[in-house]
């Protein structure tokens, strides 16, 4: 069964910082949870030049930062300080407590980041941070970005969500990678596409439950994100954002 997720209306503007929040569970009518299993939410974050998000705490969230445009600078109370570019991906395994801040330089271009919040399997795990270089994307080929602890993903999160991206040329079809008994959420990050025959515009998505294969076809040149989700995974709702 396919549930279409319309473009989110949850837009928060805070000066140079804008957040557009996507709640995957809301794709299903009358679903009790704003998240879908361990995938709590994902935010398109836009940080204009000179933007600054001061030091703040996260607890019990696994946070993926996927940068598509520009560059953001991360700093944390554990001593980390580094830029994040589209050739990298960052994971904050917040665990019991993790403090960080983000900013863009005044002369930089506007940064566009997808920040993805996954619910960990256990409360108050040890905090850690990962910055991983990514292989260059290959047109029309899915790229494995993030996965659970038992996977061979470049970056690791502590629950059953697998994240992929693809840059798909207009008219090209591609099957989304699958995992036994896991569901699929496809989000159109740029462009337009069809998912199993359902047309999606930019910023729309499709949650596909108990249905394989999942086939995407680009209506125009498109960038898509695909989440594979074990909706039966053990999880905690204690997260600062993802709870």
Characterization of this structure:
There is one protein chain. By secondary structure, the protein is mainly beta. The protein has one domain (2-229): Jelly Rolls. The chain is 0% helix and 50% strand. It has a seven-stranded mixed beta sheet with strand order 1-20-17-22-15-13-14, with no helix packed on it. A hairpin with a 2-residue loop joins strand 2 and strand 3 (17-22). The radius of gyration is 17 Å and the shape is globular. The chain starts with a strand and ends in a 14-residue tail after the last strand.
In whole angstroms, how far apart are the ends?
A: 26 Å
How much of the sequence lies in strands comes to: over 45%
Q: Name the CATH class.
A: Mainly Beta
What share of the residues lie within helices? under 10%
Please give the domain count.
1
What value does the Rg take, in angstroms?
A: 17 Å
- How many beta-strand runs? 22
Based on secondary structure, the structural category is: mainly beta
| CATH fold name | Jelly Rolls
